[in-house]
């Protein structure tokens, strides 16, 4: 179930290109507090915006089932941390989840493929249930960006990406079958945010291809509108033809 392998390879290259990154091991006792429901941060209370208008932004959640990769849970920061930022800044938040393959069922059967699609959607939707205090996230499934307003009080009270990372990790790691999770925050202006945004779009397309296969589409690859995705994503063809029982 390595549908996102090319995306993860590109992400590994981004990490390699930014060796000055900061890394923090998962520490649940250092999580930033949450509120019960979505909290508005008004413009007058906002210290700065991340990923706002005219700035780079991207957001995606990717899954691997390889035991040896992405096996430590933690937070990575590439660029300035929240306490160092003074103005509106480009921003991406990327998540990699290491999942037990059993979470996706047997993807060579229709039932298993359905389970895989529902699981991937569920993992992506976790972000809609995290309300970090003073950190108003506006995310869009249509443009794959994430925009954040940071409250002045949150800054005064010591908010940081490490603490936020632990908050996100608490949510991901409580899901049965998630063996490890990595949250990556990027604010470095040298990062190619357009490329990350293209990958965020690709992650979405891969998941939706799974859904379209389940809806029942022709099995002639040369006539299929999903061919560009299947050409790039190893495992997609097996998934389709496995489901159809075509070997
Ligand atoms: S395997 Fe072929 S027919 Fe199936 S979705 Fe991919 S391109 Fe289309």
Task: Please supply descriptive tags for the structure shown above.
5-stranded mixed β-sheet, Bifunctional carbon monoxide dehydrogenase/acetyl-coa synthase(codh/acs), Chain M, domain 3, 3-stranded antiparallel β-sheet, globular, binds iron/sulfur cluster, 247 residues, alpha/beta
Describe the structure.
There is one protein chain. This protein has 247 residues and is an alpha/beta fold. It has one domain (5-243): Bifunctional carbon monoxide dehydrogenase/acetyl-coa synthase(codh/acs), Chain M, domain 3. 34% of the residues lie in helices and 21% in strands. The chain contains 7 helices and 8 strands, in the order αβββββαββααβααα. It has helices spanning 5-17, 110-125, 152-156, 161-173, 193-215, 227-232, 236-243; strands at 22-25, 46-50, 57-64, 74-78, 91-99, 135-139, 146-151, 178-186.
Task: Outline the secondary-structure elements.
Layout: H1 5-17, E1 22-25, E2 46-50, E3 57-64, E4 74-78, E5 91-99, H2 110-125, E6 135-139, E7 146-151, H3 152-156, H4 161-173, E8 178-186, H5 193-215, H6 227-232, H7 236-243
Parallel strand pairs: 3-5, 4-8
Antiparallel strand pairs: 1-4, 2-7, 5-8, 6-7
Helix pairs in contact: 2-5, 5-7
Top CATH class: Alpha Beta
The chain-level mean pLDDT equals 90
Basic shape: globular
Order of helices and strands: HEEEEEHEEHHEHHH
Radius of gyration: 19 Å
By secondary-structure content and strand pairing, the structural class works out as alpha/beta
CATH superfamily: Bifunctional carbon monoxide dehydrogenase/acetyl-coa synthase(codh/acs), Chain M, domain 3
List unreliable stretches of 5+ residues.
Answer: none
């Amino acid at each position: 179930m390595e549908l996102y392998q090319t995306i993860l390879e590109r992400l590994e290259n981004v990490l390699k290109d930014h060796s000055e990154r900061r890394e923090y091991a998962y520490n649940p006792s250092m999580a930033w507090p949450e509120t019960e429901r979505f909290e508005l941060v008004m413009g007058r209370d906002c210290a700065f915006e991340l990923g706002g208008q005219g700035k780079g932004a991207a957001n995606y959640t990717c899954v691997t089932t390889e035991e040896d990769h992405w096996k430590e849970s933690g937070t990575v920061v590439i660029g300035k941390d929240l306490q160092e930022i003074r103005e509106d800044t480009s921003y991406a938040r990327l998540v990699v989840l290491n999942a037990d393959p059993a979470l996706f069922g047997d993807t060579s059967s229709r039932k298993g493929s359905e389970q895989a699609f529902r699981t991937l959607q569920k993992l992506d939707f976790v972000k809609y249930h995290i309300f970090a205090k003073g950190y108003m996230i506006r995310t869009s499934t249509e443009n794959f960006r994430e925009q954040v307003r940071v409250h002045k009080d949150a800054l005064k009270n010591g908010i940081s990406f490490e603490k936020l990372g632990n908050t996100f990790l608490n949510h991901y790691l409580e899901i049965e079958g998630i063996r490890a999770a990595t949250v990556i925050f990027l604010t470095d202006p040298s990062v190619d945010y357009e490329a990350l945004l293209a990958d965020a779009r690709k992650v979405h397309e891969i998941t939706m291809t799974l859904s379209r296969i389940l809806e029942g589409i022709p099995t002639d690859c040369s006539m299929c509108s999903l061919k560009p995705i299947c050409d790039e994503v190893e495992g997609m063809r097996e998934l389709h033809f496995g489901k159809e029982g075509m070997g």
